[in-house]
Design a protein that fits this description.
The structure is a homotrimer. Chain A is of the alpha/beta class and about 130 residues long. In chain A, about 30% of the residues lie in helices and about 25% in strands. A four-stranded mixed sheet of chain A has the order 2-1-4-5, with helices on one face. In chain A, α1 runs antiparallel to α2. The mean pLDDT of chain A is about 95. β6 of chain A pairs antiparallel with β5 of chain B.
């Protein structure tokens, strides 16, 4: 169900974005019970002219290694669950992909469960 | 009003994505009464390293022909209307563009009607 | 907090999209009190086959210079504030970047304040 969009600056490793996506997926399974195999992602790399971040908003020091992660997912997770998700993603990206903790930017967009079709023209999560 | 984002794997036909978009637009008009001419879309093609889908989440067999469709639209459609939209899009993409029914992935993001400006700095849908 | 996505047709000036983004950021600070330095944007240019707009929906005459701006931001702004934001963005893009007023298309997606992590795996806006 989550649809994940990850945006980063161009990385010399063509598989780097995918590595980030794998960590995000594993973190969602671990922290907020996203089902196994529920993995759908769009990964995009940008040149310097098309990717904008502030290097110290809220006193957090960001670098060109910043990773924007926007996740569209079902509503209903508690603030505690969201906090655990942020921590799990940031620590995972740090440990598995060498991303600085300060460089992990996450935005959640919540939707109703009937707002998804996973194929065949059906609303698999609707009652 | 709907803003449609379609993401697919690179297709040899440069107009293929546009064809998909035309079907999505026609389906929205038919299934959920989107007004005539209300057609705004961003279409993006991705290489293998930047497009991730599970090949059988929920038992639905997906291929590299999978189409992600994310539609931002006004809130208020019923679950029945959403179901009709999913079915209309999937069948339309299948008939008009040869997309497998299982390869149609749809995500709806609902917003308030005052959340749009269609030009000239005005909120055309606000009271 | 706002995550801004700007989509335009390919522009010969590689810094044009960034110029648009600067105006959008300044407009958010001016019109809806977005904090200083709260500036995160993804800018994308598209060829003719991957960018679709209607040239006169609602009687507004649009050209290839149309600019799609989708802003994910915290919920709670009034309709009056949103109207002021639309006007400020459109006039700013017109004055600073030569965009026609009719070519400014804006979509807002509102989320809860605990739906953001600005780095370090924390939910900086959550209570």
């Amino acid at each position: 169900m989550p649809l994940v969009r990850i945006d980063i600056k161009k990385n010399p490793d063509a598989t780097f974005a995918q590595k980030l996506g794998q960590v995000v997926y594993a973190s969602m399974k671990q922290a907020i019970n996203v089902p196994d195999k529920d993995n759908f992602q769009v990964l995009t790399e940008h040149d310097d002219n098309h990717f904008v971040y502030d290097p110290d908003y809220l006193g957090i020091q960001r670098t060109d290694g910043v990773v924007f992660i926007q996740i569209t997912l079902n509503e209903g997770r508690s603030t505690e669950q969201k906090k655990l998700l942020y921590q799990t993603i940031a620590e995972g990206l740090n440990e598995e992909a060498g991303v600085r903790l300060e460089d992990v930017f996450i935005s959640l967009v919540e939707v109703k469960k009937e707002n998804w079709s996973f194929g065949s023209g059906l609303a698999q999560y609707a009652n």
